[in-house]
Task: structure prediction
Amino acid sequence: MLTAEGLAVFRGERLVFRDLSFQVQSGGALVLAGPNGSGKSTLLRLLAGLVRPIAGRLLWDGTDALADLAEHGRRVAYVGHLDAVKPGLTVTENLRFAARVAGRAVEDALDALELRHLADLPARMLSAGQKRRLALSRLALTPAPLWLLDEPTIGLDTASIGRFGTLLRGHLAGGGMVVAATHVPLPLEGAESLRLGEATVVAG
Amino acid sequence: MMRTFLAILARDLRLSVRHGADTLAALLFFLVTASLFPLAIGPAPETLGRIAPGVVWVCALLAALLPLDRLFGADLEDGSLDLLLLSGLPAFGIAGAKAVAHWVATGVPLLLAAGPVAIMLRMPEDSVPVLLLGLLLGAPLLSLFGTMGAAIVLGARRGGVLLPLLILPLMTPVLIFGVGAADAAATGLSPRPNLLLLAAMLAAAIPLCPIAAGAALRASAE
Result:
C-alpha cells in the first residue's frame, strides 16, 4: 500500500503543489488529472523517488519509502514521457536491459504489445507509436508492484490501447498498483482520480 | 545487484560496439595528436625520445576525455537515466558500471596503442614497459575521474566545455607520477615510488569517485 501524507514539491523557485495526501491500495489505480504544469509528471517522479519532496512523507506499507532509494527503485516501474529507446539498438536489444534486471527473457515482452514482427528492427526505424509500445513493453517484464505511467497512451492506436488495457488489468488483478497521469481516458475501470490544479490544491 | 551491474555494463558495451565510429574516435585522436609531435618538433631521436612519455600521457589523457560528454548525456536526453536509477542498483553502482564501460571501450584501446606510439616517438625500448605499467594503473584513474566529472556537469549548459576544466586539474597528479615513472626508468632510477603512488590513488579513487558520481547523478535526475 502506498500512502502520501502532505507532500509538497518545489521546482526551482516555484511551489508545484502542497498538502497532497492520497492512498493507493494493492490492486488499486489512481489517475492524475489537471491542466498542463499542474505537477502530474513531478508527482510521478516523486513517487518514483527521482524528485525529493520538500515536505510530507511517502509511505510504503507504513514505512518511509524514500529512505532507501535503490530499494524503492525495485518496487517501481516508471514510464515517463521520454521512451528511453536507443535508436542504435534493435527492439530486442532495447528490451534486454529490462529483461536482465528482472531476470526474465525478452520473449516474454514481445507479445504484450505486438512487437514480435519488429523484434530485429533497429529502433531508429520505428514510428513514434511503435517506440511508445516498446517503452510500455518493459512493463510486461518488470516484477515491480507499482507502475508509474506518464501519458502512457500517447501515440498509440486503438488496438494497442486495447492490449495495453489487458496488460494493466493483469497487473491490477495480481495485486499491483497503477498511478497514471493522463488527459485522455485510460483503459482502467474503477480507478480513483486525483485532480491537481494550479490554483487549488485538492487533497484526495 | 551484480546482475544489474553486469546488465548496465553489457548494455553500454553493446552501444559502444554499435556506435563504433564514436568509440574509435578517441583512439584515432590519440594516434593523430601523438603523430603531430615529430612533425612539429622534428625527428631527432634524442629530443623525441626524451619527451615521448609526456607526449603519450598527455595525448592519452585528452583522448580519454572525448567520450565522456556522451557517457551520461545520451542517457539523460532519451530518458534511460531514469530507468538506470530505478533499476534497483544504488547510484554509485551505476556510476561504477559506467566507469568500467569507459575503461573497456576507451582505456584498454589507448593502452594497447600506447606501446607502438611510444616506439614511434623513439622512446628508449627498455623504459617502454614502465610507461605501459604506469598507463595500466593510470587508465582506470582517467575513467574514474572522468565518470565523476561527467556526472557532475550532467545537465549543465556547455557541459562539454566545463568538463575538461573540471577534470584536468584533478588528473595532474596522475600525469606527474605516470610520466615520472617512465622518466625514472629512462634515467636508471627505480620507478617503484611513482608506480606505488599511482596505485595508491587508484585504491582511493575506486570507492570515492563512484560515490561522488552517484550523488551527482541523483541530483541531475531531479
